[in-house]
Automatic annotation (TrEMBL):
<dbReference type="InterPro" id="IPR018891">
    <property type="entry name" value="AIPR_C"/>
</dbReference>
<dbReference type="Pfam" id="PF10592">
    <property type="entry name" value="AIPR"/>
</dbReference>
<feature type="domain" description="Abortive phage infection protein C-terminal">
    <location>
        <begin position="245"/>
        <end position="471"/>
    </location>
</feature>
<protein>
    <recommendedName>
        <fullName>Abortive phage infection protein C-terminal domain-containing protein</fullName>
    </recommendedName>
</protein>
Amino acid sequence: MITKFDNYYDQICIDLKKIVSDREYTGDGSSSKAFAYWYLKNTSVLNENDIEEILIDGNNDNGIDAYYLDEREHILNLYQFKFPAKKNNNKEIDLSAITKIYGTLNSILKGDIENLISRATNIGFENLLGLLKDQPVYEINVVFVSYNKGVISEGNINYIDEQENILGNDIALHHSCITRENIVNIFEKVHRRNTLDLSFKYKNLQLANNVNESDNDDTYIESWVGVINGKALIQAVHNDLTRIFDENIRLYEKGSSINEGIKNTAENNETAKMFYFYNNGITLICDSAKTSPGNNSVLLKGVSIVNGAQTVNSLASLFQDNKLNDQVSVLIRIIQIQDYKQRAKITEYLNSQTPIKESYFIANNVIIRNLQEDLFNFNYYLERQINEYTYRSKYDDMSKYQDFTILPVEDAVHHYIGGYLNDKANIAKSNKSVLFEPNQIEENIKDITAEKVIKVDVIYRRISEIITTYRKNRRNDQNSEFSKFLGIKQPEYDSNLFSFVNTGDILILNCVINIQNRTNDSSIDMAIKDSILLIKDVIQSQSDFIDSAPATLTKSSRLFTKVQSQVEHKYSGESSM
């Protein structure tokens, strides 16, 4: 019997085949590699280079297909991806795959990292080990992403619980499962087949404040305030958790003390009845709202939760574990509005009362506002707010911008600092969130200009293309694009000497800018080529550079400084190596 999951499988395969072709994934696991890229591309804020850096490609990955460190919370996510044959999408993850990743975790947490690094034969896994050695990690979350039913059998669940109890003595250890149901929702979101509609029962709901937002009497903002049972709320949204936060600039902060407090309150018999009074509630924004007072239900079209991600996800986590108390009630506010600018302002202001990613709040900085206006003159659309262009396109006429280059403000500032500020360049790679902190950002962007932003954007995009050719070569030694770019004949080319390229985007960018600042006739390709060869020589000149994991090395302030010094000496006719 054909199910919806079979039909979606075929459609997802179309996306994956394109990724396999574009990125030249090879071998029996090419679909799973493409699936990993597809998932991270569509569920994270990471760009193409970031994703490729954290993928553990090839053999001897020890059951870990990707990793991502949340530098703010020091939470390490370890991913295992499975895209099984179509006939197996109704099964669950094999125990052998589960034991492999937890066996690796046991070796990492109970073993000698230095010894593991010395024995690692996979560069991606070596980079992960290097990160664990050099960065503080207070919590690990194992994420199983599989186009099947996930982990459902009692034996598999018991094994995971047992392993997490054993290893949890050393570090906070959790797991989560992204199943075929979640993946279908992601696919729908990616392809924007329809806006999200939501219907639920409420305990009470009444019309609240209404505003005529313009001189046009036909346009209004309407709002309702009410109360909904916690379980009723989660039952209404649980199948759409991957889409319901489309316009929310905050992501769920798994494991934070605030969310643990929310869960404790909602689980405990003594405090659950007070949840309404202790919690700020949630705000939903929608294109239209229709209420049915007779049966206490409401239908929202084009809906998104713009405030309350922590509350909803915390309650959903309890609901999944059958621990959500029946007495939990949640304050809800519904805002019906179709004007993009007001929707964006509402979202921003609702999320400005609690700490969030610093880069989100430079949108109204006068320098950034002026930068956006200046970039319009060069056919660049600087997105001051997250996904600004996409959401404005839903409500405003954006035809005059249709041929513009879309550039997120975080990328613009990040690449500008990485390229032009030598003393901050390594931080742009190792901990870019620091660059956006209030006590840093004014100093970091005081000299930013449209011309500099465009220059680093063009160079960075070209560097990304060259890095992609290196990755293709690593996967397929018959591919010679990268070696040809460097002007090295294939028999003389050793890809291991250029392993830094995989994670070296900002290092190369900084080097290119420094070279071009000293040479008036250096083309972008020539400067990139010279930068890669120069960095390679600098690394090969020092044993401690050679012995470092590539991902650790390309964040090193010492390597950045050494490369900057070598550029200065080389282009003044000297050598410092």
